[in-house]
Amino acid sequence: xxxxxxxxxxxxxxxxxxxxxxxxxxxxxxxxxxxxxxxxxxxxxxxxxxxxxxxxxxxxxxxxxxxxxxxxxxxxxxxxxxxxxxxxxxxxxxxxxxxxxxxxxxx
Amino acid sequence: xxxxxxxxxxxxxxxxxxxxxxxxxxxxxxxxxxxxxxxxxxxxxxxxxxxxxxxxxxxxxxxxxxxxxxxxxxxxxxxxxxxxxxxxxxxxxxxxxxxxxxxxxxxxxxxxxxxxxxxxxx
Lengths: 107, 122
Description:
The complex is a heterodimer of chains A (107) and B (122). Chain A has 107 residues and is an all-beta fold. Chain A has strands at residues 4-7, 10-13, 19-25, 34-39, 46-50, 54-55, 63-68, 71-76, 86-91, 97-98, 102-106. In chain A, strands 2, 4, 5, 6, 9, 10 and 11 form a seven-stranded mixed β-sheet that branches. A four-stranded antiparallel β-sheet of chain A has the order 1-3-8-7, with no helix packed on it. The model of chain A has no long low-confidence stretch (mean pLDDT 97). Chain B has 122 residues and is mainly β. In chain B, 0% of the residues lie in helices and 55% in strands. Chain B has no helices and eleven strands. Chain B has strands at 3-7, 11-12, 18-25, 34-40, 47-52, 58-60, 68-73, 78-83, 92-102, 105-112, 116-120. In chain B, the strands form two sheets. In chain B, strands 2, 4, 5, 6, 9, 10 and 11 form a seven-stranded mixed β-sheet that branches. In chain B, strands 1-3-8-7 form a four-stranded antiparallel β-sheet, with no helix packed on it. In chain B, a hairpin with a 2-residue loop joins strand 9 and strand 10. The model of chain B has no long low-confidence stretch (mean pLDDT 95). Classes of the chains: A mainly beta (107), B mainly beta (122). Chain A binds chain B through residues 1, 33, 35, 37, 43-47, 50-51, 56, 88, 90, 92, 95-101, and chain B through 45-48, 51, 59, 61-62, 95, 100, 106-110, 112-115.
C-alpha cells in the first residue's frame, strides 16, 4: 500500500499569502497519478488537481500542483477567503489511498 | 453536470448489514467511467472503499474487501454498496463518486455525491 503523508497538519496564513502543502509518498507514484482535493465543512471533496499538475475544470489558476515520484506539492497563490479549507492528496497508481489532510486556516 | 445522490438508512445496528444506493444523473453508468464509494468518519480523513465498472468488474480496498460488495444496475443508472458486520468503527459519512477513466483504467474522482451519514449504534 502506498502511504501518503501530508505536511504540515495545519497551516495558519492570512488572505493574500501563499500556501505550500506537501504530500510525500512511501513509494514512487507511477505516471504521476496523484490528485488534490479541497473539502469545506459539511461538503463533499472537490477535485482541484489531477495527474499531479493538471487543474480540474473551473479551478482558478492560483492553484498549482507540482512534483513527481514521491514528493508532490500543492501551491495556492494569493489565498482568497474561500480557500481556507481542508486539503487532501490521493494517489491512484496502486489501488487508492488518501493523505491525512492539511488544514489551511485563517491566521 | 454529473450528479450523484446517496440514499440509505442513517442508523444501523451493530453486526447488521449496511445497504446504500447511489443514483447517477447527467451521465450514463455505461459511459466508460468507474463508480466508487468513499467514507469519512466524523472529523477524520477519507478512506476509499471500492469501485465498480458497468460490466460488473470491481476493485476493493484490501482492508475492507472481506466485508464489502459493490453492485451496479445499468437499467436504473445506479450502483450500490453492501457492508456486512457493521461496528461503531464504521460510523462515517459515505460518499459515492465517479471515477474518471481513460481506456477503461480508473483514475481520479471527479464528481461526488453530497454524502450520507451512517451511524452504527444499538
